[in-house]
């Protein structure tokens, strides 16, 4: 059998009260639909088809790099209608169709594999769940032998049917040809005037097709997002699992409830994260790395033994081993800091290499600079790298000493072992191993008097 996946994602998402289509709202830093696509990608499927509608081209545009087929459902006429539109887009080779939902993000690959496997010898398999409060869901109706007969939607259910606690999660897998035949028979004669996908179940039962059912690993897997309260609940669930996985792998989280993973964290042994650390994109932390409170680390690599003090923001930075960063430091893309570097408070570094053991401890901007080893950058040093049009390079040799409050007007270079006097504006190359100053000489005016205020009589 060749599997094709159809993801229904055309719904309006009215209760989100948002201009952003529901399936683009982020969970753990990624759109809801991305989580579903990721789960589907783990299956051995020939194709993924996404039915979109509300929000128009915004949804496909957000996934331009993904290898999936987009089918527009301009008018949302029900889940059955959405699937009818999707089927013709499937490759002829597809014989088995799995239906997923763009707003049910935490479905796991394990459950999907189980559901698909349960369809091996039947025409139809459903993912159902037992819940305490079934209101709002389609109910699973079985005969006295337990044989699955049909699904009745909440709005169409009788009083007795409303007491049924086995509900339809919506996830199903069906043999393609039969599915197409059942869909061709469903109508809109129901409380909502929609084509209900769930009506295919009664048709399958009438055809004498065996209908299998499987349960999810936990209810959260099949919980959909209708409003921002539910979104936040799923976010917390996701974060708790992520935090537990990291702790079990040897990461200390001072408070797992105050940690957020919006991407992937690759941590070696004995990494220690204080409260309110946010990890985005792909982050690698070497063994023994310590990250202080309130740090945001995005797409960066930090070497073993490095300590990041509180309130730092790192984005696209690479830091070597045994470095000290912060508190209150900002490392921007292509900040490349070697081992044993020190970067202190209110220092911003962008597209700059800082050689081994070099220090910029206070109040500094280093952009487009190539800085050697053992360099000391004094407080208030600024690379003037931008003239409003061009970005220019600053080069500083090993063991140079840049006095406080120096402006390095790029392009400019400072030789190895050079010393720059504090308060200098350096516009030309400063030679190696010498003192260069570029500031007015201090003068004192003997006998100068301050102006006096006139005295009132
Ligand atoms: C559906 C099921 C119900 C089940 C419940 C689980 C039907 C008729 N009912 O009800 O048995 O218990 O899910 O949450 O299937 N969608 C489209 N196009 C449409 C309509 C819906 O793409 O025209 C998508 C929505 O974006 C959503 C999903 O299908 O992702 C389910 O639609 P929704 O309106 O939430 O169905 P429910 O009434 O909740
Ligand atoms: Mg729903």
The CATH C-level name of the largest domain is Alpha Beta
Rg, rounded, reads 31 Å
The number of domains? 2
Subunit arrangement of the protein: single chain
Q: What percentage of amino acids are in beta strands?
A: 25-35%
Tell me the overall shape.
elongated
Spatially, the strands of the biggest sheet line up as: 15-17-20-23-25-24-21-18
How would a crystallographer describe the biggest sheet?
A: 8 strands, parallel, barrel
Instruction: Give start-end ranges of low-pLDDT stretches.
Output: none
Number of strands: 35
The CATH topology of the largest domain corresponds to Spore Coat Polysaccharide Biosynthesis Protein SpsA, Chain A
Q: What's the SSE blueprint?
A:
Blueprint (H helix, E strand, L loop, with lengths): L2 E7 L16 E2 L2 E2 H10 L3 E8 L5 H5 L6 E4 L6 H8 L9 E6 L7 H10 L5 E7 L8 E4 L5 E5 L6 H4 L3 E10 H8 L16 H7 L4 E4 L13 H21 L3 E2 L5 E9 L4 E2 L3 E9 L4 E2 L4 E3 L2 E2 L4 E2 L4 E3 L2 E2 L4 E2 L3 E3 L3 E3 L4 E13 L4 E13 L4 E2 L4 E3 L9 E3 L4 E2 L4 E3 L2 E3 L4 E2 L4 E2 L8 E2 L21
Parallel strand pairs: 1-4, 1-6, 4-5, 7-11, 12-14, 13-15, 14-16, 15-17, 15-18, 16-19, 17-20, 18-21, 19-22, 20-23, 21-24, 22-25, 23-25, 24-25, 25-26, 26-27, 26-29, 27-30, 28-31, 29-32, 30-33, 31-34, 33-35
Antiparallel strand pairs: 2-3, 6-10, 7-10, 8-9
């Amino acid at each position: 059998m060749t599997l094709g996946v159809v993801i229904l994602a055309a719904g309006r998402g009215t209760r989100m009260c948002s201009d952003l289509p529901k399936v683009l709202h982020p969970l753990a830093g990624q759109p809801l639909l991305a989580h579903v696509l990721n789960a589907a990608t783990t299956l051995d499927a020939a194709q993924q088809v996404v039915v979109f509608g509300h929000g128009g081209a915004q949804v496909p545009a957000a996934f331009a790099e993904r290898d999936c087929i987009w089918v527009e459902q301009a008018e949302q006429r029900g889940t059955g209608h959405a699937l009818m539109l999707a089927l013709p887009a499937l490759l002829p080779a597809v014989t088995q169709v799995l239906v997923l939902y763009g707003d049910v993000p935490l479905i796991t690959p394990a459950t999907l594999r189980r559901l698909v496997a349960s369809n091996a010898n039947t025409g139809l398999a459903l993912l159902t769940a037992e819940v305490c409060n079934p209101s709002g869901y389609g109910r699973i109706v079985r005969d006295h032998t337990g044989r699955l007969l049909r699904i009745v939607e909440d709005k169409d259910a009788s009083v007795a049917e409303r007491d049924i606690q086995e509900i339809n999660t919506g996830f199903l897998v069906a043999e393609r040809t039969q599915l197409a035949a059942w869909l061709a028979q469903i109508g809109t004669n129901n409380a909502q005037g929609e084509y209900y996908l769930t009506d295919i179940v009664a048709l399958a039962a009438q055809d004498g097709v065996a209908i299998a059912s499987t349960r999810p690993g936990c209810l959260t897997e099949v919980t959909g997002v209708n409003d921002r309260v539910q979104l936040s609940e799923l976010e917390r669930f996701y974060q708790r699992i992520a935090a537990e996985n990291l702790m079990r792998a040897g990461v200390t989280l001072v408070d797992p409830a105050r940690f957020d993973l919006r991407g992937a964290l690759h941590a070696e042994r004995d990494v220690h994260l204080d409260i309110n650390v946010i990890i985005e994109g792909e982050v690698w932390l070497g063994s023994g790395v310590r990250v202080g409170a309130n740090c945001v680390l995005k797409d960066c690599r930090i070497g073993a033994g490095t300590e990041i003090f509180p309130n730092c923001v790192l984005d696209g930075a690479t830091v070597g081993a045994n470095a000290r960063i912060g508190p209150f430091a900002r490392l921007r893309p292509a900040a490349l800091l070697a081992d044993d570097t020190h970067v202190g408070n209110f220092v911003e570094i962008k597209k700059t290499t800082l050689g081994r053991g070099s220090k910029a401890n206070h109040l500094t901007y280093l952009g487009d600079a190539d800085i050697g080893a053992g360099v000391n950058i004094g407080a208030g040093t600024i690379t003037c790298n931008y003239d409003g049009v061009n970005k220019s390079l600053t080069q500083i040799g090993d063991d140079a000493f840049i006095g406080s409050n120096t402006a390095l007007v790029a392009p400019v270079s400072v030789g190895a072992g050079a010393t720059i006097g504090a308060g200098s504006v350096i516009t030309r190359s400063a030679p190696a191993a010498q003192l260069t100053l570029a500031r007015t000489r201090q003068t004192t005016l003997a006998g100068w008097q301050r102006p006096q205020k006139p005295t009132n009589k």
